[in-house]
Amino acid sequence: MIFSKMKTVLLAASITVMAISMISFPQESFEASIRGLNMWWEIVFPSLLPFFIVSEMLIGFGVVKFIGVLLEPLMRPLFRVPGVGGFVWAMGMATGFPSGANLTARLRKEGQLTRIEAERLVSFTNSSNPLFIFGAVSVGFFYNPNLGIILALSHYLGNFTVGLMMRFYGIKEITKGSRKNKLSVRAAFSALHQTRINEKRPIGKLLGDAVVSSVQTLLMIGGFIILFSVVNKLLFLLHITSFFAWLVSAFFHVVHIPDTLSIPFIAGIFEITLGSQMTSQVQNTDLMHQTMAVSFILGFSGFSVQAQVASILANTDIRFKPFFAARIMHGFSAALIAMILWKPLYEKFFNHGKPSNAIPVFMQPHFEWWEKVLQSFMQYGPLLTIAVLIFYIGLLLKKGLPH
Question: Percentage of the chain with pLDDT > 90?
Answer without folding.
Answer: 18
